[in-house]
Amino acid sequence: MRWHTKPTIILMKCYVIPLLLALCPATAHAADAGKVAFFGITYLDTSLQSEAFGQDPAEVARIKLLEDLVRQTFTEQGYNLLDLSPIQEQLDTVVNPAKCYGCDARMATKLGADYALVGEVQKVSNLILSMNLQLRDAASGQTVKGRVVDIRSNTDESWLRGMRYILKNAIFKDEMGGKP
């Protein structure tokens, strides 16, 4: 039976493995996911704590943490995140790309994107925060997928849990096995 070993390995390498990869849903999805202009996550702090004590550097760091999670997840799901430098000057004039009367979709179109992606985190108090992520069609500006969630607790883990919930149960519901 030893004489079958080499032909079997060659058969696996040349035919079976490439065939399985071609049929894999993740690979097929990744090939056509689209181009995304991710305009980041805007932090809106309307809490009395920040008014009295100033902005908490840990919360600013959490915005970066969420943006990294969103970038990583979209990349893993096969989306091409575009460089924003060609429209950076225009973007710098926008306070909140999630609420700019369609400027996000117009800027995404200028970049050649299929989608605009915007997010917000609003701190109501040190206990109550609201988080929102919207994937919009660049051509029409219509929301394709999105969700708003409220979270309780102001920690790295609670923020990450909230964004993971949005990604799994709204944006990538089918791909990540989210709740029906």
From TrEMBL:
Residues 1-30 form the signal peptide. Keywords: Signal. Pfam families: DUF3280 (PF11684). This is Uncharacterized protein DUF2380.
